[in-house]
Amino acid sequence: FDENELADHKEASETGINPYPIYAAVDKDKLSEKGENFPGTWFEFTPHEAGYAALGAFVSTKNFGSEFEKGKLKKKGKKKTICYMQGESS
């Protein structure tokens, strides 16, 4: 298993060593609830941020999985590994 975090890929992608990874996933709960054209259906994540592009709702990958209230960090979540993130997108 790759225990690296998504944020660990920042340096390699910023220096051009690797292509910049942009992952996309479908939120299956939103898909069945609202349909494929609902803006909150498509979830994206990169080494820098994760969120819903159509909603303009993103968070730094360092804080992905954390709890927020009114835009303020409420509870820091555990960092997500690459394997976890890839599992989210399948």
TrEMBL record:
Keywords: Hydrolase, Lipid degradation, Lipid metabolism. Residues 1-90 form the PLA2c domain. InterPro entries: Acyl_Trfase/lysoPLipase, LysoPLipase_cat_dom. GO terms for biological process: glycerophospholipid catabolic process. Signal peptide: none annotated. GO terms for cellular component: cytosol; nuclear envelope; nucleoplasm. GO terms for molecular function: calcium ion binding; calcium-dependent phospholipase A2 activity; calcium-dependent phospholipid binding. The keyword Cytoplasm does not apply. It holds the Pfam family PLA2_B. This is PA24C phospholipase. It comes from Chionis minor (Black-faced sheathbill).
